[in-house]
Amino acid sequence: METALFLLIPMAFVAGLIDAAVGGGGLILLPSLLTALPKELPAALLGSNKFTAVWGTASAALSYVRRIRIPWKVILPAAATAFIGSLAGARITHYLPADIIRPLVIVLLAVMLVYTWRKPSFGEEDAGRVLTRRDLILGMVMGAAIGFYDGLFGPGTGSFLMFLFVRFFHFDFLRASASAKIVNLATNIAALLFFIPAKLVLFSYAIPMAIANIAGAQVGSYLAFRGGNAWIRRLFLILAVSLLAKLIWQQYH
């Protein structure tokens, strides 16, 4: 156990840092769990990943809420539908294998990456416009879709949310990241409602990792505020490229 924690605790810290800024902490955390604990059930590793991540996400969300104006009238309903969507996605995980979902995610991620790359001003400034009833409905639809995706498959959930909030609500990256944390927190909690009762969380590993993840999230939030939108944009593009490469590798190898 001690040997595994020597790897998992630093990785949980790094995952919390990255996730707090642009999402995608699972890109680091889940492979680390699979490497360090190869004899454990994959479902137990997924549950431990979610347990760890929910604490870091909550910590980052709290940091953002204190300093960023969140459009609660749109984000809370989006979080509610994301919660329901995540529960639905988790329920049909066994019926839709990852090999069916992955090609679609690769295409969507590539489109998102190219769009962001070709628009240097994308996410640099917040339009500050008043969100309408149409935005409320759109937010709920996006929340349900991304929540379903997170419950079913998961990689890059926070990054997809950020992109959608910038693209459709015209937030800057900092505000989009803050809003994404609220919605992502809802999807993580929904997943834990399945994993914890099913006894699929390895608490002896997950609790120390959660503490490290919280510490990383605090550092990541600080760096996001300090670096601003330009820094978040660069990190977002790096993460998107990394996630795209990982999914393509898994699809064709």
From TrEMBL:
Keyword Iron in record: no
Membrane topology summary: Multi-pass membrane protein
Chain segments annotated as coiled-coil in the UniProt record: none
Transmembrane annotation, as ranges: 44-62, 74-94, 100-117, 137-166, 178-196, 203-225, 231-249
Annotated Pfam families: TauE
Subcellular location: Cell membrane
InterPro entries referenced in this protein's UniProt entry, alphabetically: TM_pro_TauE-like, TSUP
Main localization, broad class: membrane
UniProt entry keywords in alphabetical sequence: Cell membrane, Membrane, Transmembrane, Transmembrane helix, Transport
GO CC, alphabetical: plasma membrane
Family to which this protein belongs: Belongs to the 4-toluene sulfonate uptake permease (TSUP) (TC 2.A.102) family.
Name of the molecule in the record: Probable membrane transporter protein
Protein source organism: Deefgea piscis
